[in-house]
Structures are given as structure tokens and as C-alpha cells.
Design a protein that fits this description.
The structure is a single chain. This protein has 64 residues and is an alpha+beta fold. It has a domain of 42 residues. Helix content is 25%, strand content 19%. It has a three-stranded antiparallel sheet with strand order 1-3-2. The protein is elongated, with a radius of gyration of 18 Å.
Length: 64
Amino acid sequence: MVKKIHGRRKRYIPIGTSRNRKPRMKTFTTEVVAKAYAEKLELKSYSIEKTKYGLGKKYKIVAK
């Protein structure tokens, strides 16, 4: 849920525009879960890679 903007900030961000945020990638705890999600989306060619931030314990799906 998006936080409500108050006061001065509300004047600088016009109503109706969204914040300038990049959407985060979907990550998974195991390769098995990532593979199941990719098959559910019916992706034809994809690869499962470890994330390159933090401790790198999570996996992400990269479409080829």
C-alpha cells in the first residue's frame, strides 16, 4: 500500500502522477520454486540466476 503524501511534498508532486520508482524484480528462495513459477507463466526460454545484491541467497528468472 502506498503511503499518503502530506504537506509540502504534496505541493511538489502533482496529484495523479505516481512516484518515480523502479519496480522490483520477483525473487524466489529456491530454484524449484522459481522453475515452478516460470512454468506456470508458460515461459519458453528462460534461465534461473542468483541475485547479485545482498548475500545472493535468492534466485530470479531471466527471459532469454
